[in-house]
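To the wet lab folks,

You asked to see what we're planning to order before we commit. Fair enough. Below is the target structure as tokens, and below that is the sequence we designed to fit it. If anything looks off to you, flag it before the synthesis order goes out.
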């Protein structure tokens, strides 16, 4: 368990809610390498993440042009936002399942859930994480580290056991964006007072 905990603590966690769908799997169902994960990822997840990567790549060179490209960059951001809204809607429809959960926190190495019942330590799960603010979704596998009493239920920590590098980067970026929103909200509240 200490090794799993070390992995979990490699990245910071932000207390933020994202939708997650879990399906228990046994060891035989785990992918042996990243090419196996690629074969299992739903096509819609691949599309959403590819659009997200293309957006990041396309806007980077425009930032170097300075004021000249500011209007163009703003226009492209608006177009990108329209695509993001459509993708968010499509992903939300993909997320219409009865047993969806919401995270208590998440980060680049895993997530926590607060539930009424504990999860069995070391159990593996196939995970679908829906990052609405990023208009993206992550398909991966995670392992239960522990389930501890928390408030009126249990808080369970999951560490990513099988995740593509680009999806882990997406989780890190999403957690940083969530943290930036929290800081902006605190700053605006501070300015009001």
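Sequence we intend to order:
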């Amino acid at each position: 368990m200490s090794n799993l905990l070390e992995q979990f603590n490699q990245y910071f966690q932000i207390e933020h809610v994202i939708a997650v769908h879990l399906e228990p799997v046994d060891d035989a169902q785990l992918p042996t390498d990243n090419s196996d994960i690629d074969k299992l990822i739903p096509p819609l997840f691949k599309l959403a993440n590819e659009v997200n990567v293309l957006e990041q790549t396309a806007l980077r060179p425009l930032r170097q042009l300075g004021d000249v490209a500011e209007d163009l960059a703003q226009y492209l951001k608006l177009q990108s936002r329209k695509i993001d809204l459509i993708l968010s809607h499509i992903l939300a429809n993909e997320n219409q399942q009865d047993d969806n959960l919401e995270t208590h926190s998440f980060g680049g190495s895993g997530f926590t859930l607060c539930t009424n019942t504990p999860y069995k330590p070391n159990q593996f799960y196939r995970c679908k994480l829906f990052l609405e603010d990023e208009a993206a979704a992550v398909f991966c596998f995670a392992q239960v580290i522990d389930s501890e009493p928390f408030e009126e239920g249990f808080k369970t920590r999951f560490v990513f056991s099988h995740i593509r590098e680009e999806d882990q980067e997406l989780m890190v970026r999403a957690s940083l964006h969530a943290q930036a929103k929290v800081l902006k909200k605190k700053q605006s509240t501070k300015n009001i007072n």
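Structural context that might help your review: The chain has a mean pLDDT of 85. The first helix runs from residue 2 to 8.

Thanks,
Computational group
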